[in-house]
């Protein structure tokens, strides 16, 4: 009971066809969810600016690396293009982005339970940018972060995230712990 074969295009994959439109519909629904969340929590543009500018440089680099890996590397091929069931590829991509969202929210806030609505929105925007195709080679996350840092006059510029684990690891590595 293997895949059927089409003479022109090779093996036919199982499951419904994952077209550009179904992917766009999922991404649009996620954008609508973020917009709804922002509206429900009255997130202002200035709060978003501060939350996004507060993302540490290391977090931006991590997001760019993840985005690049999704768009140009084997990770994207395995998740979207190559699974035997095309809808499974979409599920993999959305699940991977969801995991990245929570990891990134933890990097931004240090504690997901105490995250502000603006931080959730900033992490959601980063996760959506990584989910969108063809953004990994254009540094959109970096340019948005630079714009937000300029708007806030660099007041929230950080190199490393304020995750409690980092000082402990650095102390051990430097011989102080």
Shape: globular
Order of helices and strands: EEHHHHHHHH
Measured as a percent range, the helix fraction is 55-70%
Low-confidence stretches: 1-6, 12-16
**Rounded radius of gyration (Å):** 19 Å
Number of helices in the DSSP assignment: 8
Which sequence of strands runs across the widest sheet?
Answer: 1-2
Q: What is the arithmetic mean of pLDDT?
A: 79
* Helix/sheet category: mainly alpha
By DSSP, the count of extended strands is 2
Strand content: under 5%
Largest sheet, in brief, is:
2 strands, antiparallel
Q: What's the number of structural domains? A: 1
The rounded distance between the terminal residues' Cα atoms is 59 Å
Walk me through this protein's architecture.
With 177 residues, the protein is mainly α. It has one domain (19-173). The protein is built from 8 helices and 2 strands, in the order ββαααααααα. A two-stranded antiparallel sheet has the order 1-2. The chain is globular, with a radius of gyration of 19 Å.
Summed up:
With 177 residues, the chain is mainly α. The protein has helices spanning 20-40, 45-53, 57-72, 74-81, 86-109, 117-131, 140-151, 165-173; strands spanning 5-6, 10-11.
Topology overview:
Layout: E1 5-6, E2 10-11, H1 20-40, H2 45-53, H3 57-72, H4 74-81, H5 86-109, H6 117-131, H7 140-151, H8 165-173
Helix pairs in contact: 1-6, 2-6, 2-7, 3-4, 3-6, 3-7, 4-5, 5-6
What descriptive keywords fit this protein?
mainly alpha, 177 residues, 2 strands, two-stranded antiparallel ribbon
